[in-house]
Amino acid sequence: KIALLVGNNCYQHHPNLMAPVTDVFELSLLLKQLGFQVVSLLDLNKAEMVTAVSRFLQLLGKGVYAVFYYAGHGYEHSGRNYMVPVDAPQPYAPENCISVQRILQKMQQQRTALNLILLDTCRKWYNPQCALSQVQPLEPWGNTVYGYATSEDAEAYELQDGEFSSGIFMKYLKKHILQEKKVTHMLEDVLEDIGRDPLVTGKQVMEIKHTLKEARSLTDPI
């Protein structure tokens, strides 16, 4: 059980965020309770993100449960998701950002038993002039789960409560993540809770996509 958590708060050319630092810290504690080896990193530039991901991929192998969580600025363009490093210029383009689909492809090549991708980012796209990066379609291994904090072309919101800041997604994920149930069912509980939150009604609805063909749970003993 291996997890890489990345939270980008302090951007050079974009508005700073507040929640990722807290959300990465809280998720790392919960995943450790579930028996994961966790690497948590904050405020990475593009080169650092590339290095972190390649080291993470080296740790994966057959039967591994792999979790990749990213909180920070991001966007979606024609069904492809990009994470924005802290040094990305304005406006951002695919060549300045990190493709989530490309990471997932490489995770799949390691024959993992479970790939869980949690993206706590916005999915709005502001730069229609950009070309798409080339990504091959995923192999049909039946081992992948996406949890998007928000639906396509929508924002993901942060909560500020005095000194404490948290993403709406993490507020409810931490409530359910220790449950002994199939990971997709656990995420459905998170989706329903976010859907009932009056602060984000009509603004943020979580989205789940998956090809998980076996009842894998984050609580499974490995």
UniProtKB/TrEMBL annotation:
<dbReference type="InterPro" id="IPR011600">
    <property type="entry name" value="Pept_C14_caspase"/>
</dbReference>
<dbReference type="Pfam" id="PF00656">
    <property type="entry name" value="Peptidase_C14"/>
</dbReference>
<feature type="domain" description="Caspase family p20">
    <location>
        <begin position="1"/>
        <end position="123"/>
    </location>
</feature>
<dbReference type="InterPro" id="IPR001309">
    <property type="entry name" value="Pept_C14_p20"/>
</dbReference>
<dbReference type="InterPro" id="IPR029030">
    <property type="entry name" value="Caspase-like_dom_sf"/>
</dbReference>
<dbReference type="GO" id="GO:0004197">
    <property type="term" value="F:cysteine-type endopeptidase activity"/>
</dbReference>
<dbReference type="GO" id="GO:0006508">
    <property type="term" value="P:proteolysis"/>
</dbReference>
<protein>
    <submittedName>
        <fullName>Mucosa-associated lymphoid tissue lymphoma translocation protein 1</fullName>
    </submittedName>
</protein>
<dbReference type="InterPro" id="IPR052039">
    <property type="entry name" value="Caspase-related_regulators"/>
</dbReference>
